[in-house]
Amino acid sequence: MDGTPLGDGTRAVRAGLPEPRKYEPTLPGPVFAAHFHLPGEPTGPYTYGRDENPTWTHLERAIGQLEAPGGPAGQDERTVVFASGMAAISAVLFSQLKSGDAVVLPSDGYQALPLLRERLEAYGVEVRTAPTGGDAQLSVLDGARLLWIETPSNPGLDVCDIRRLVAEAHRGGTLVAVDNTLATPLGQRPLELGADFSVASDTKGMTGHGDILLGHVSCRDPEQAAAVRRWRKVVGAIPGPMEAWLAHRSLATLQLRVERQCANALLLAEALAGREDVTGLRYPGLPDDASHPVAARQMRRFGSVVSFVLPDRARADRFLDALRLVDDATSFGGVRSTAERRGRWGGDAVPEGFIRFSVGAEDPEDLVADVLRALEEAR
Ligand SMILES: *Cc1c(COP(=O)(O)O)cnc(C)c1O
């Protein structure tokens, strides 16, 4: 290689692969082991299955290379995989915060954050909140140990300025973690934008087939990575080897999936724009979306989620019923389109007719036609 940076597709198909060895597979299969042969002193990379597993190591290298392609050597040791996105989020919060610390959380982030807030407060951590859009986090940063941001936010798709918030936070000694679930590292690289932690639920677009739960944390600082890794060992929030291997296998198609799904999402958003039965349309990739100017400065792809509001709950339910190519299901980022009336969960501050639409890898003309027909049938 002559030093020219490799493209995203090339990096995705090769991410985390070990050096080729004669008669070995390209990506070694999952290692199922509760313990490893270990005579003598209990040191070395693999001792007990809750601590480390070679299948995790390959996946952690792969994700580390995608999160920080230009990162320092050994960057791979700064990524830690977990059993789920919530396990990854909890690992950062609980390894970094102690009684008496203050943390800033989004007021409009993932719906389980209030559950974490309860826990943190029970442990004596002061929790402040701020909405994602408009950089209102700046006014509550003073003296905080950690700023947690989720951009684009789920499900509202607001965006905040990572570089600006990091600069202000670091000036006051505050660490910054970004929930990068919606964007994936091919859409946005928080560590390159200055953040200390890039965290994701890899249950979503990262693995993209809606068949596994997984999460990861990528860290700027090796000591923080060690603390996050230690937390995993303590609470045992470990991914199964099969899940880790399936995730690694899925990464090979990450660029293909994300590219297609983001292109489809933009086409769908354009088809919905200007319809009189659709309000509150949000997609950060739409040039006139409120999030677009900031998103365009820090994102390379704008994600596979489009959100919009239908006039009422009954209309939204009829729309979801009428869709033929789109399943009524939660989660997002998968190759098969799904949509749901988000208000049914009760956890997000959204109107009754709010639809979170996860755009898959179908042919765009089929998908758009199905959605427009369902909207007509729902009238
Ligand atoms: C789904 C999701 C999570 C939680 O991830 P799990 O894998 O379900 O534990 C966290 N943050 C965001 C933004 C999510 O969409």
Describe this structure in words.
The protein has 379 residues and is of the alpha/beta class. Helix content is 34%, strand content 14%. The chain has 11 helices and 12 strands. The protein has helices at 8-14, 54-67, 85-96, 113-122, 162-171, 222-235, 241-251, 254-272, 292-298, 313-322, 364-377, and strands spanning 79-82, 102-106, 126-130, 146-150, 175-179, 197-201, 215-219, 279-282, 305-309, 327-328, 338-341, 354-358. The strands form 2 sheets. It has a 7-stranded mixed β-sheet with strand order 1-7-6-5-4-2-3, with helices on both faces. Strands 8-9-12-11-10 form a 5-stranded mixed β-sheet, with helices on one face. Helix 5 (162-171) links the parallel strand 4 (146-150) and strand 5 (175-179). The radius of gyration is 21 Å and the shape is globular. Pyridoxal-5'-phosphate (PLP) binds next to helix 3.
Summarize the structure.
This protein has 379 residues and is of the alpha/beta class.
Task: Write the topology of this structure.
Blueprint: H1 8-14, H2 54-67, E1 79-82, H3 85-96, E2 102-106, H4 113-122, E3 126-130, E4 146-150, H5 162-171, E5 175-179, E6 197-201, E7 215-219, H6 222-235, H7 241-251, H8 254-272, E8 279-282, H9 292-298, E9 305-309, H10 313-322, E10 327-328, E11 338-341, E12 354-358, H11 364-377
Parallel strand pairs: 2-3, 2-4, 4-5, 5-6, 10-11
Antiparallel strand pairs: 1-7, 6-7, 8-9, 9-12, 11-12
Bound molecules: pyridoxal-5'-phosphate.
